[in-house]
Amino acid sequence: MSGYQVKRTLLNLALIAAGLSLGVSAIEAQDIESLPFEPIPIEPIEPILIEPIPLEPIPIEPIETIPLTLFPLEDQNRGTSPIYHIVLVDLIDTVTEAEIEALIADGEHSLASIPGVCSVDMGLKLRDDRDVHIRDYDLAVYVQLGYAAALDAYGSHPNHQAFLERQRHLWSSIRVIDFSGSTPSTIWNDCQ
After folding, report:
1. Within 10 Å of residue 11's Cβ, how many Cβ atoms?
2. Where residue 177 sits, what CATH number does that domain have?
3. What domain range is 11 assigned to?
4. For a FRET experiment, which of 23, 43, 148, 159 has its CA 20 to 30 Å from that of 96?
5. pLDDT higher than threshold 80 for residue 18
6. Are the C-beta atoms of residues 82 and 185 closer than 8 Å to each other?
7. How many Å apart are CA 37 and CA 40, to the nearest integer?
8. Pair 136, 90: CB distance under 8 Å
């Protein structure tokens, strides 16, 4: 900043402080130069070199490894994610339509009353006319559970075991798919 600029700035500040409202254009440069202001010397500042401060390493506690599942089972005990239990059933060749209807009615009634079960549905294979379809099953069982611990209890529950004893003579084999949904469950309170 030149001496002229400093003087003009100081004059403007003094006029503002005195309550005067003069514009800078009303003051000529020679008037400012004639004012008894001394220019403020501005000394150049030398850069200061700051030494880096050595930092102590922060001790980090090892963490437990996370299981390779989207939602660890221990976190699924309640309300985080629904569990889907799907059973593909190969029926014996001699099963009758009446036996299939009784099997479905028994399964839907018996399995739905197990604690933690939200819904049960059973039905015959709808179609297998595309290459992507699974063809080697006859009947599917769909059970939605509210949380992972319910799946653990489901298999050994007396209702499930009694259903298996009553109906297992109607199938030759079963395959099971269990998976966890990716959307947090908001319905587990509605489950048994």
Report:
1. 17
2. 3.30.70.100
3. 1-60
4. 159
5. no
6. yes
7. 9
8. yes
Residue type, 60: I
* Whole-number Å distance between alpha carbons of 122 and 109: 11
Is the same domain home to 106 and 164? yes
Residue 76 pLDDT greater than 50, yes or no: no
> Which tokens sit at 168?
């297992």
User: What total number of domains does the chain contain?
Assistant: 2
Look at residues 29, 60, 91 and tell me which one is the last residue of a structural domain.
Answer: 60
pLDDT digits (tens, 9 = 90+) for 28-62: 555 556 666 666 667 777 777 777 777 777 777 76
Answer for the pair 177, 141: CB distance below 8 angstroms, yes or no. no
Q: The tokens 């800078």 sit on which residue?
A: 24
Model-wide pTM > 0.70: no
Indicate if the pLDDT at residue 71 is higher than 50. Answer: no
Interatomic CA distance for residues 192 and 167, integer angstroms: 23
* Predicted local distance difference test score (pLDDT) of residue 91: 95
Write out pLDDT tens, residues 103-142: 999 999 999 999 989 999 999 988 888 887 888 999 999 9
Residue type, 118: C
* Torsion sign, CA atoms 157, 121, 141, 166: positive
Residue 71 lies in a domain: no
Residue 117: alpha-carbon gap to chain centroid: 24
**One domain for residues 20 and 107:** no
Does residue 168 fall inside a structural domain? yes
